[in-house]
Amino acid sequence: MSNKLENTDRLCLHTITTKPWSIEIALEQYAGAGVRGITIWRDTLEGRDLKKIRRRIMDAGLEVVSLCRGGFFPSADETERERAVLDNLEAVHEAEAVGAPSIVLVPGADPRQPLEDSRRQIEEGILRINEEAKKAGVRLSIEPLHPMYADTRSAVNTLSQANDMCDRIGDSNVGVAVDVYHLWWDPSLGEQIESSARHGRLFAFHVCDWLSPTSDLLYDRGLMGEGCIPVPEIRGKMEEAGFHGFIEVEIFSTRRWSMDQSRNLKDIIEAYFQHT
Ligand code: ZN
User: Residue 28 Cα, ligand 1 centroid: separation in angstroms?
Assistant: First the structure.
């Protein structure tokens, strides 16, 4: 295992990482910088003709890794749960239109009900959209989120829980997304990555860093190398388990969004080579 990445062939950026850029500018800039993969956040597609976007992606020589994001299935309110299913079906069709082979599911949670209820509703939601997703050729990646988000964003907080959920669903179209920000602290991470790999469900790998101290629990992520997450070590575990897909940089940071975005992109590529 090499600790250094030698080229940008496996580098993917989430459009949210360069939030001030429109999808059109992001495509142009990423391609110009040698980035090969793009994970598209749905907000960037608003008001766009998806066929045109698909063409631009192909012209730029980029590969869509995922559409981000679906999920947010749980609610104590049944009408809201139905609305979430419809929204996820729409995401499936958007993914198909832009050529995304998978959708990242942020599972969701509702503080008005027990976590167990939210987990059950996540599973029900996934089962409701999975057939349509399969028809569209779109895989579903469950992304466990750090437990600090267990109130409203995710009742699935460890890779072990995500693996258990995949076992219960029992369909190869449903797998997991491993995000170092959410899972770096878990002593069973290596074991769970191996378990995901054994079942052929290691679909995605997201990187950034945990700043210490962190000033905002959502919008203060760091570049790889700026914080305390052993990113190269976790990448090593992914690769030892057989994962050789894209390494997706996903950084929500009001600090970095306020920078010149060309500078932001340069810093990301440097951090990718040196600290990933
Ligand atoms: Zn992520």
Answer: 23
Q: In terms of residue numbers, what domain contains 50? A: 11-275
pLDDT for 1: 46
Q: How far does the centroid of ligand 1 lie from the alpha carbon of residue 80, in Å? A: 24
Does the pLDDT at position 3 exceed 70? Answer: no
List, in order, residues 6 or more apart from 93 with CB less than 8 Å away.
136
Q: Look-up: residue for tokens 């890794």? A: 65
Ligand 1 centroid to 106 CA: how many Å?
8
Please indicate, yes or no, if residue 1 is contained in any of the structural domains.
Answer: no
Q: Give distance in angstroms: CA of 145 to centre of ligand 1.
A: 8
Place of tokens 């850029």: 21
Least trusted range by pLDDT, from 3-7, 128-132, 156-160, 210-214:
3-7
Compute the distance between CA of residue 176 and CA of residue 7 in angstroms, rounded to an integer. 26
What's the CA-to-centroid distance between 108 and ligand 1, angstroms? 13
CA 144–ligand 1 middle distance (angstroms): 9
The verdict on residue 108 lying in a domain is yes
Looking at the DSSP assignment, which residues form a beta bridge with residue 163?
none
Q: What is the pLDDT of residues 132-149, one digit of tens each?
A: 999 999 999 999 999 999
Q: Is residue 232 part of a domain?
A: yes
Whole-model pTM above 0.85?
yes
Please report where in the chains the tokens 């800039």 appear, as a residue.
Answer: 29
Is residue 4 domain-resident?
no
For residues 50 and 71, give the distance between their C-alpha atoms in angstroms, rounded to a whole number: 21
CATH code where residue 222 lies: 3.20.20.150
Count of domains for the chain: 1
Torsion (CA) 122, 73, 222, 187 in degrees, nearest 10? -10
Structure tokens, 66: 């995922």
In a 10 Å sphere around its CB, with 0-12 CB exposed, 13-18 middle and 19+ buried, how is residue 32 labelled? exposed
